[in-house]
Automatic annotation (TrEMBL):
GO molecular function, one term: dihydroorotate dehydrogenase (NAD+) activity
Catalytic reaction annotation: (S)-dihydroorotate + A = orotate + AH2
Protein name as annotated: Dihydroorotate dehydrogenase
Cofactor binding mode and count: Binds 1 FMN per subunit.
Protein species of origin: Mesopusillimonas faecipullorum
Names of the cofactor(s): FMN
Superkingdom of source: Bacteria
Entry-linked InterPro entries: Aldolase_TIM, DHO_dehydrogenase, DHOD_1B, Dihydroorotate_DH_1, Dihydroorotate_DH_1_2, Dihydroorotate_DH_cat, Dihydroorotate_DH_I
Gene3D superfamilies: Aldolase class I (3.20.20.70)
Entry-linked SUPFAM superfamilies: FMN-linked oxidoreductases
Keywords linked to the UniProt accession: Cytoplasm, Flavoprotein, FMN, Oxidoreductase, Pyrimidine biosynthesis
E.C. no: 1.3.-.-
Residue segments, region Disordered: 1-20
């Protein structure tokens, strides 16, 4: 019987031919076979979207942020569609650690791609505790610190808005793990560069930006906020130019590599973020609209590089800068 596993089909041979551009990137010591990943919270806790395409198609998986304790999340309604975007406040519902370790982590462990777990805490201690537990799992490729959380011991300002708080936190986390640490920043025009420089100096290996900016929608008939938490966030195409600008600005401000995101929906957006300075690019809200957008963008990106005569996707990084 013919063993087809040893005989690549002609199209498969073409895929690995020398004339194919290289899509692989290195970011924070993590090797991604292509620069595409997903924004935390938009692809489930353990790649639940695998019903649409194999999770391993993407360069790395960033699952939903977890806490060190069970948390119900915010009251419904949690999401509301707006012009060119999504208004949401999910509130990061989380299992307790034991449930995560026994269930989700077991699924993540078997995936054949780098998994970067996103974590959050209300205090430095809570971040450090969850980071140590994640590190001990032994299979993660990196940790993403979701800094969009009010710092309960320091007046409630988000860690990501306060350079001193962000710096202290990253320095403590840095000591608690040998895994690459990625600081995910909130998009705040006035503090962004200072926070980015602070987390870089404190030992972060990369920065992910942007998290979804704060937003509100009010029902004109009831004249009350629409979503349960009243205050939410805005994501999707509406925020893309702002996010591209912020990536562009941080590329000029820090040396560590950047994961770019905010309204990405196809390969053209990937090129835009990479030209601004991102080494890897995440698909977020689009996953809810078109779950096949990411795998399609990988093929389209490869074709774009071929058409442009570019051999290596890394050549795109920062190409918008003089
Ligand atoms: C419904 C929803 C849930 C999200 N949950 C998280 C989360 O748990 N952790 C996190 O760091 N970001 C979370 N985000 C932010 C996204 O990862 C991403 O940074 C942001 O939405 C911008 O990208 P986008 O415009 O492509 O969605 C969430 C976004 C949405 C829309």
């Amino acid at each position: 019987m013919l063993d087809t596993t040893l005989t690549p089909a002609p199209e498969a041979q073409e895929q690995v031919g020398h004339d194919q551009p290289s899509l692989a990137v290195q970011i924070a010591g993590i090797t991604m076979k292509n620069p595409l990943t997903v924004g935390s919270g938009t692809y489930g806790h353990h790649g639940n979207f695998s019903q649409f395409f194999p999770v391993e198609t993407m360069g790395a998986l960033v699952p939903k942020t977890i806490r060190n304790y069970r948390w119900p999340g915010n009251p419904a309604p949690r999401v509301y569609e707006v012009t060119a975007g999504l208004h949401s406040s999910v509130g990061i519902p989380s299992n307790d650690w034991e449930t995560f370790a026994a269930k989700d982590a077991q699924i993540l462990r078997d995936l054949k791609l780098p998994v970067i777990q996103s974590v959050i805490g209300r205090t430095e201690d809570e971040y450090v505790e969850i980071v140590e537990k994640c590190d001990a799992l032994g299979f993660l490729a990196g940790l993403e610190l979701n800094l969009s959380c009010p710092n309960l011991k320091q007046g409630g300002l988000d860690f990501g808005y306060d350079p001193a708080a962000a710096s202290r936190l990253v320095a403590r986390v840095r000591k608690a793990t040998r895994l690459p640490v990625i600081a995910k920043l909130a998009p705040d025009y006035s503090s962004l560069v200072n926070v980015a420089k602070a987390v870089e100096a404190a030992g972060a290996d990369a920065i992910a930006l942007v998290n979804a900016p704060r937003a509100m929608c009010i029902d004109y008939q009831t004249r009350k906020p629409i979503i349960g938490n009243k205050i939410g966030a805005l994501s999707g195409a509406a925020i893309k130019p702002m996010a591209v600008y912020m990536v562009w600005q941080l590329y000029r401000s820090v040396q560590i590599p950047l994961f770019g995101m905010g309204g990405v929906s196809d390969y053209r957006d990937v090129v835009e973020f990479m030209a601004a300075g991102a080494r890897a690019v995440a698909f977020g809200t689009i996953n809810y609209v078109d779950p096949m957008a990411l795998p399609r963008a990988i093929a389209d990106l490869r074709q774009y590089l071929l058409d442009q005569g570019i051999n290596d996707v890394n050549e795109l990084v920062g190409s918008a800068h003089d």
